[in-house]
Amino acid sequence: MGGSIFGRYFKVATFGESHGAALGCIVDGCPSNLSLSEADIQSFLDKRKPGQSDISTPRKESDSCRILSGVFEGKTLGTPIALIIENANQKSSDYSEIAKLWRPSHADFTYDAKFGIRDPRGGGRSSARETAARVAAGAIARMCMPSIVIRAWVESVHSISMPSFDGMPSEEDIESNAVRCPHAPTALRMVEFIKKARAEGDSVGGVIRCRISNAPAGLGEPVFDRLEADLAKAMLSIPACKGFEIGSGFAGTRMFGSAHNDEFFVGEGGEVRTKTNYAGGVLGGISNGQMIDFRVAFKPTATILKEQKTLSLNKEPTTVVGRGRHDPCVLPRAVAVVEAMASLVLADAVLAAGKSLPL
Amino acid sequence: MGGSIFGRYFKVATFGESHGAALGCIVDGCPSNLSLSEADIQSFLDKRKPGQSDISTPRKESDSCRILSGVFEGKTLGTPIALIIENANQKSSDYSEIAKLWRPSHADFTYDAKFGIRDPRGGGRSSARETAARVAAGAIARMCMPSIVIRAWVESVHSISMPSFDGMPSEEDIESNAVRCPHAPTALRMVEFIKKARAEGDSVGGVIRCRISNAPAGLGEPVFDRLEADLAKAMLSIPACKGFEIGSGFAGTRMFGSAHNDEFFVGEGGEVRTKTNYAGGVLGGISNGQMIDFRVAFKPTATILKEQKTLSLNKEPTTVVGRGRHDPCVLPRAVAVVEAMASLVLADAVLAAGKSLPL
Amino acid sequence: MGGSIFGRYFKVATFGESHGAALGCIVDGCPSNLSLSEADIQSFLDKRKPGQSDISTPRKESDSCRILSGVFEGKTLGTPIALIIENANQKSSDYSEIAKLWRPSHADFTYDAKFGIRDPRGGGRSSARETAARVAAGAIARMCMPSIVIRAWVESVHSISMPSFDGMPSEEDIESNAVRCPHAPTALRMVEFIKKARAEGDSVGGVIRCRISNAPAGLGEPVFDRLEADLAKAMLSIPACKGFEIGSGFAGTRMFGSAHNDEFFVGEGGEVRTKTNYAGGVLGGISNGQMIDFRVAFKPTATILKEQKTLSLNKEPTTVVGRGRHDPCVLPRAVAVVEAMASLVLADAVLAAGKSLPL
Amino acid sequence: MGGSIFGRYFKVATFGESHGAALGCIVDGCPSNLSLSEADIQSFLDKRKPGQSDISTPRKESDSCRILSGVFEGKTLGTPIALIIENANQKSSDYSEIAKLWRPSHADFTYDAKFGIRDPRGGGRSSARETAARVAAGAIARMCMPSIVIRAWVESVHSISMPSFDGMPSEEDIESNAVRCPHAPTALRMVEFIKKARAEGDSVGGVIRCRISNAPAGLGEPVFDRLEADLAKAMLSIPACKGFEIGSGFAGTRMFGSAHNDEFFVGEGGEVRTKTNYAGGVLGGISNGQMIDFRVAFKPTATILKEQKTLSLNKEPTTVVGRGRHDPCVLPRAVAVVEAMASLVLADAVLAAGKSLPL
Q: What residues bind NADP(+), as annotated (chains A, B, C, D) (predicted)?
């Protein structure tokens, strides 16, 4: 039961069904005296909201957030910050048919199995619309640690991958195109590929990369609450996510230890650094001060416009054709969600470490 | 701070440094009236213990566990079960040199950064020896759900992979060789490869696969506490783990939705099944009754017998050569740890679902 | 940090400042398929809301709640239930003076010490207005266990106590007067006493009694999460609460064991009962099937209309006179809060026990 | 299920049955680099151990604790500290008769109702012997905040109360007599009273007072995790505890607000103080820098040497006469437990507040 509360110190409780009255969250544990306005949050929500480009769903939602508590005269109070996003464009009449069957690769069947009831309107609680609340919470988490940079982008769509590179891409490059890939020529090909898949009534997946710079050494806990373990949980909690790897990841399993071990050296400022970063910024579950670097796999969108065989609630064969307003590829909008979840994990680790905030 | 307690309902707290007096755990939340003996636990510990074969460390530890509480006349009481494993073969004199530097790819540096103190004997708390306590706890978790089968094996070592197959391999096939790969010809090649790496003073990584059958539909929670999210956290909390993927995982990012969506059908017993299992047994964070299927990436062992450059505690250049008793490849012994962590996650989900136990 | 989330299984996160935009809560962990409407909740909110009688504050708040999620077509979905209560009558202009000093016996000083910032409007987060969200959550908790009866009433106001009695008073008797004391002649004296105190610009405290019937044996956990321990925490978390006792309580410390030990016997239905109930319904932290019976002490309202000496924020002597709209005695309205918190504890214990709901 | 883990930041998991192999605890979250030895802990265990005087049980237990992990060369590592206390004097043959019935006012019946199984030897997990592990954990908690003084003593036994006084009694005065009452003439009368009750085969209860000085303002959280709420939970989790009151407590319910409100003034060192302390050191759930002051009610020991009527497990009438080695009054030994639980709450609040330790 439950399952909608995240974090041990910087705690976030979310609520909301896709076509319910509203969705939102409570952030409990945010430090006091930080500047926070609805505009700070809105800029992140805008990156996730539907209808941004011609490769995302045409559902119209302003995704305007309203702060209900925890902020007074522009400063956080240290008390719970509640946020609400009203659902403007609900169109719930569309969903009577879907209520009678289980859409393939959706959570319809498992929600029925678990709860014996389901809100069929737009997927209810299982809709990725729920992640708007996470993005809002993540925006607050960032305010706790302004010097830490958390940035995600689309690295591959289906078989199209951008060239590998070191360092942190600029936000401008990421935001320069509809697919949020900082390598413009690749982005162009990705957009064409997504449009072609959509034209065929199909959908595609891909990989989001996330890097975090300026995180101090010492974040994360030994044994279970390792930083990479919390990041893995955070990422696998995002709808459609099927994989997580940090540093060398799966490719690192094909290296020898002598090549994989990152050599320490002393940087120009006297700080301890490593020559390579196969570790991905963590050693023994704790940040080592290098770039935290991980990749997140997303499956192709479950909703497709082709006819698919499935079962009705009474287990009779039937078919379903996706309608409504869906993204042929979730990745461009999921970038904001990956960043948000990473922000929640980092803020939690920062608070756990007892560092004085803001960092 | 903290970080050594796992689970929300079936809770496990572990303790112990590699060369301390003992290690062990407390399991709080185990249902009452289950049969449990030290022998039940020992059989799992034996799979993880050192010195099992000529490709693992020669450190001698019987890893005998002693139940201190929570069991009366062979039955669990519903009260905390404490387990202790004394460290027999400590040899802590070996570690004076290591105390003065940071071994590459180990947690020496990050523990120093976080805690300002470190037990240098065998890696202290960051040693994989800590996982013995997890294996013991996992053995208890299994007792809660005897009908669920949780089985892991080595799928690849470095570039050597076994052929893909469906279904659950037999325990006999897995245990038939030192590397715990159920495909005998591949296992042979893996063993030779590991021996060769060791002879060169080097180490290798690989991938462990885990499948879970007979898990009922309905396990896992929406949003954050998804079953796959908890599995991801559990796996990434294992030392040397760098990646997790469930179902189609990273490969699934290169599929179209029309191919990736698993088609529902009604099985012979009237149960709902899917023709393919790209989902890996979970939809929307909740088990769908199909095989739960995931892969876990392990980096090559950090300790190698080649000389490596590194830094001393005062940031002076120095070198280190691995000594002591280490595994050139952690995977054969990590199989038991992957199974144990999966067992903890499943038992927790089962208790959360409020199903009457044992399943 | 944090502190606004309650419960381990039936979890409640609350938010809201007294004069902020709104207050409310998220309930995460409520079972699915329970009937729930806003009217179910409103009836409990109405017992707590201001302006019910001539002995409570004249602040006008309809305290209308709106369910934002977790309920579909009148049934709970098993997903988070979010509730919002808009603040209608904020009048925040009243509070400029109070912002500059620390009111005696209020949380102004401690919030400043802890957070370095405070919402001075009506006490902000420290206002008892926050308890409206708890009452709403408690109303949902009751839906999980309809056969368990949880009832509280005012037992004493200052030195005026109602006669002792066994059993459960009727809701009609409790609601028959403004002070919520089921003994009409005593209630009359209490009302007069409160009016007299108010006329003198003063305030009074008292004791609320709560009894819970039909709770099955077996609720509560050994050692720390005892049922009485969770009840104690729940009650002491209510503003103005200074004490909790269960069963014989403090009076029981003046009894001998031979008199205090409750003798078991077999009831008419074959159930195990006790002849006396000095235990108050719990043995070893676990309910024994008898009436759960406890008392809660409330201090006199901190706000009084007499001039009091105090300090300004820069530690200069000053004076303060209570204004605004306050209760001279919080107990009549706190009855609903005591019931709500008891409901949260019971629902949590019921879910922890894994009993199938509804009971 | 569960229930044997306490704390959110300074977490303690305990284990052990009265006559099992051992009892102990894991402390997860203790800061690193604190000095800690077994002797530091032993001095507190010695205050709780049986057989200290002629008014406590003659059971012989050295209650020697052994640290298994988390400490290296006399300093805490920041990793889990495990402690074990072997049960030396088990004498479990005594308990065959008790296994067949439910002793009045003990947890035999409720454990059977909840778990369907019970360790009858000395009360198993429900025995107050379990509190030895808490005392050990509390000793570690104190090390985190050496400047905070936490001291408890026996204020009343049955109807015999010591005179009221302000300030903190000396440890010497408390330890100067077998009953741990700092007022020698009262202590003498208490001892005589306890001896007389024991001679009659009876038992007595009483009240323990606890005061905490030097706690900084700002500890505790708003709303649910109030400092007084956590203290109340901690105290009510102690076996035989039936009540808790802080500051004016139940007596304060008979005061007027004008008398009860503590007036702020500026102390000699420029610190904010209050002239009276009816609040007991907390305002709005947060410490105000004054003495934290609370009282804890303990019922008379359940085990008495008089014959009592009760029921057998098959609900047949039978009788029971207490045997074995029991305390006629638990209070002298419970003083150490009250201090330990208060220490756990304070350490948790200190860590939550993010203050740099040690204070």
A: 48
